[in-house]
Amino acid sequence: MRRPLVRDSLTWLLYLQLTCFALFLYGFGPSVLHLARDLGVPDVTAALHGTAFALGFLVAGVAGARLAALLGRDRLQWSALTLLSAATLLYVLGPAMPWTLTAAFLGGCAGMTVISVTTAALADHHGPRAATAISEANGMGVGVGLIAPLLVGGAALVGLDWRVGLVAVPFLVVGLRLAFRGVRLPDVRPGPVVRHSLEERGPGPGVFSAASRMPWRYWPAWAVVVTAGTIEMCMAIWVAEQLRQNTGLSRGAATMAFTLLLIGMTVGRLLGARLTQHLSADRLLMGSLLLNLGAFALLWLSTAPAPALIGVALCGLGMALQFPLAAGRAVDASAGRPDQAMARSGIGQGVASGLGPVALGVLAGSAGMRTAFLLVPALLGLAALMAAVRTR
């Protein structure tokens, strides 16, 4: 019988630290097209904010494992959250696109660092229950993060400044620092590579060897992490525009409708945390990809708001477990190197998530949003192929 997940103060701190980034991320995505109106630039140009954000992911992925080993997870995590707060303020106050692009880049650097540290620390701290903890952390993040697009879209709908959806991030970071000042994340120390799975090694401190290579079975899991992150980024930036063009919703209403995607993701991740105790991660991952594909078909084919909105919510339900399960599989296949596994995933996500939304925007400019949006099921198909490869 599997032992239950025990949530201590370290677990809750990690959950809430990830929530800080989720609040930024889910406000940032739907805010990009509102920012385009303010700056007077085309939508496809504004989508470069997604590229800058993804470039930050890439940089953090390259440096993340080394920084975790050098600084320790605790110092690195709080530094990243401080940077995230500064990036948020620069994004909402920046008077021109160079400032807001810089803010997006810094937000990506900070966000990937928070994701990597949180995932690796939860994997070490909870061992065989890591998949459940990672799913819960992501579920809580999305659940709180859905407040941001509601505020962004609601403010735009009633003629207020959409920026109110993002300003809570620095206050939340300060509040966490004060509330959890006695809790420290365990540091990463260099050491020999332990070549057995996450389930086998149980909870304990992570190990890191910069010179070692990942086993071959890590790379299919890596590919699923990368495609899952790219799908989330494409949906975050463009689903509101797809709804607006295909169903006739106003820009503010379409932005608020993005919240349905996050509600679906919240429900999926919280339910998924329970399902991981009874079903294998491989089976759940494949099921989530197939559900996402069917939900996308409903969204893409619908020209009336009601079925399209149902499709959005079901897309969120399908997307919910893709990243946490894929991240857990990648960590498990990394031969005992969770920080390095997440750092390399960050490199891939940085490249793919930067190219994905821009490619979708360019296609939308030439072939229309409806045709361009078919990039999403193409990515889902690739993820399904890679998920079918056994990583154990």
Automatic annotation (TrEMBL):
As one GO molecular function, the record gives:
transmembrane transporter activity
Database matches in Gene3D superfamilies? MFS general substrate transporter like domains, Multidrug resistance protein D
SUPFAM superfamilies named among the record's database cross-references: MFS general substrate transporter (SSF103473)
Q: The Major facilitator superfamily (MFS) profile domain covers which part of the protein?
A: 1-392
Q: Which PROSITE patterns match?
A: MFS (PS50850)
Q: Which UniProt keywords apply?
A: Membrane, Transmembrane, Transmembrane helix, Transport
InterPro entries found in the cross-reference section = MFS, MFS_dom, MFS_trans_sf, MFS_Transporter
PANTHER family for the chain? BYPASS OF STOP CODON PROTEIN 6
Instruction: State the name under which the record lists this protein.
Output: Major facilitator superfamily (MFS) profile domain-containing protein
